Each structure stands twice: as structure tokens, then as C-alpha cells.
Amino acid sequence: MHVVIMGCGRVGSMLARGLEKRGHTVAIIDQSADAFRRLSPAYTGRTIVGMGFDREVLIEAGIEDAEAFAAVSNGDNSNILAARVARETFGINNVVARIYDPGRAEVYQRLGIPTVGTVRWTVDQMMRRLLPEGSEPEWRDPSATVRLAEVHVHADWIGLPAFDIEKATGARVAFLTRLGEGVLPRADTVIQEGDLVHVVMLERDAAAIEAQLGTKPEEA
């Protein structure tokens, strides 16, 4: 898929490298052309000088063909503004913003925009949220038979009980991350906008389950 990144600092450049290694195309935006020196010499994507919340700049970066957008500049206001433009103007559902102020992060989570706030941890969390399938496992048992992973779910799962995921896939919803806090789901716990869904599943079934949850429930 195509991913647009705003901010070519340590997080943005590492994120671009990680996405390209996984076969995705990338365009990265920064106000300073000097920032692109942080990119790997092997980087093949686009570099655009400008503001990541400017409509024309985003179009130049290919936002109209993008499936995901990451705002990782060093300014909270710029990140959330760019994330909202990507979602509300261009209809990008898979949007993540880096927010430094934890108090404000909760507010933005309520707007339905996942936020993450060390550099290596941020890159890892961004990757988990941007990629609809193939997320890295959070835990594996010693025999590598069972894995726990955060799974991207299609927007149409929102509003349905977490138990519906278990019925559809045979996996187990271990917990949800909601507004930065862990939630142990009951049978009647409903998936909400912005929830991160952590699923326990058999390693051999992981790819199929991630693909299934990435589609509408009626298509699953």
C-alpha cells in the first residue's frame, strides 16, 4: 500500500525505512529539505518540502491514493491537524499521530485518531497501527504455536461485541487498549472507535485471521 508520512525526524525516517522493507511505497513530507538527509541511501520514495496539513502538499505526496497516514513531526498541534485533514478531507481511515503531551493524547483518542507517544517504541507502535495485516506479534509461547498480536480491524467491526470476533475467527480477544488503558472484554463489551484489539490465536492461523478481521464482518 501507499503511506504518507509527515515529519522526517528519527521516527519518520525509521518508519519510512521499515515500510519500504515490507514492500510498501512511501512519501515523506517535511518543512526542511535538510531533514531528508536522515533517510537511508536506499530510500526510493518521494520527498516533499512543505507543511503536512497543506492540501496541495498532501496531494503531491499521493494522499489521494494512500491507504495510511502518519503524523510524526515534533509538534503536537501540527500532527493532530494533519491527521484530521488526512481523515476528514481525504477519507484516510488508517491515521496515526504522535503526541508528546499525554494529557492531550487522550482527547485526540476520543476523536478516533490513535496516538502514540522512546523513538524505537514509537516506530514499532506506528507500524502496528499502519499496516492492516502482518503485524509483529507482541508475544509467542515457547513452542511458537500461539501468538498474541494487536490486529487491525475493519471499521465495520466498530459497534459490535468483541465476542463476535471470537465467533467469527475462533481466536480470543485477550484485551483492548482504550484511551491508553487496558480493558478486559466481557461477552457484551462493544468495540469502540479508537480501540486497539489484541488477539490470541494459533500461529498457523494468524495470517488468515488478520485478513478476516481486515474485511467487513458480513464478508468475513
TrEMBL record:
Residues 136-215 form the RCK C-terminal domain. GO terms for cellular component: plasma membrane. Keywords: Ion transport, NAD, Potassium, Potassium transport, Transport. It comes from Kribbella sindirgiensis. This is Trk system potassium uptake protein TrkA. GO terms for molecular function: potassium ion transmembrane transporter activity. Signal peptide: none annotated. Pfam families: TrkA_N. Residues 1-118 form the RCK N-terminal domain.
